[in-house]
Amino acid sequence: MSGPEQVLRLVDQLGFCHAFTPEPPDHPFPVAAVPALFELLPTDDEDTRWDWAWTWKDSFLESGRLYYAKLVQRKPTYVSSQMLPRFYAMVGNLGDEDDCLNAREEARIGAFACTIYERIAASGPTSTIELGRHFAVSRTTLDRALTELQTAMLLVPAGTRPEGPRRYTYVWDTFARRFPAAVAAAASLARSRATEEVVLHYLQLAGAASEQHICRALPIPAFLVTNALNQLQSRGLVARCPAHTPPRRH
User: Fold this and answer.
1) 20 to 30 A Cα–Cα from 187, which one of 3, 8, 40, 88?
2) Would you say 183 and 176 are in contact if contact means Cβ atoms under 8 Å apart?
3) Which fold has domain 4-186?
4) Contact, 108 vs 181, CB < 8 A?
């Protein structure tokens, strides 16, 4: 793999993957549940990996050719154009004004995140620096809210702007404005069915994963994951493995 076109083909083949490094090491199996770009780059040099991956990521943000945001495990994630409507329907979005309220009612985002979303929806693309100046909050508070909005698929990074020498700030826009085709395609998908498809694809990538791990990885209420697994099991598409019981000590 040596450029953005190869990344596009890879994400199309996988459906989704982490944009940089693997999932946190708390995964109960010896391999990462979702593939990561760093695992597939033809170099062992850490600086080269970050240089390549960061440069390609910036090109996708500017062009909008590939979805990139914090999503699976709240880590930066690439999602293919085929899987993107399924993720969008899974989180319960419809592409209308009530999406933010619905996410708030499900406790997926907080009140401050809703305020940020409403400002960007009304005013257009806005940088992190501009948001910080307008709301006069700490960077930690702002970053937490922006992560909530990304995992709720309400906001996406849509580019960067220079912020002094060798620094930059993200520019944020609404998902619906940035990916209207995905919003339109998601309109015909029931939330329950979209969740089943994402969960099944997650398991196909992972090979195996506990229900608890899937619940932590996907930005939706746990009952939706449980319902999806029950439906997939009833159709013979997944099987629940018996819980491992450690041997008794005598």
Assistant:
1) 8
2) yes
3) Arc Repressor Mutant, subunit A (1.10.10)
4) no
What pLDDT, in 10s, does the model give residues 166-176? Answer: 677 899 999 99
| Euclidean distance between CA atoms 46 and 51, whole angstroms | 9
Separation CA 132–CA 125 (nearest Å): 14
Instruction: Give the per-residue pLDDT at 202.
Output: 95
The predicted pLDDT at position 245 comes to 46
Domain boundaries, the chain: 4-186
CB atoms under 10 Å from CB of 8, counted, come to 17
What's the whole-model pTM score? 0.89
Please provide residue 61's backbone torsions phi and psi, each rounded to the nearest 5 degrees. Answer: -60, -45
Q: Where are the beta strands (DSSP E) in 150-232?
A: 155-162, 168-174
Lookup: tokens for 91: 């989180």
Residues constituting the chain: 250
List of the chain residues with pLDDT < 50? 245-247, 250
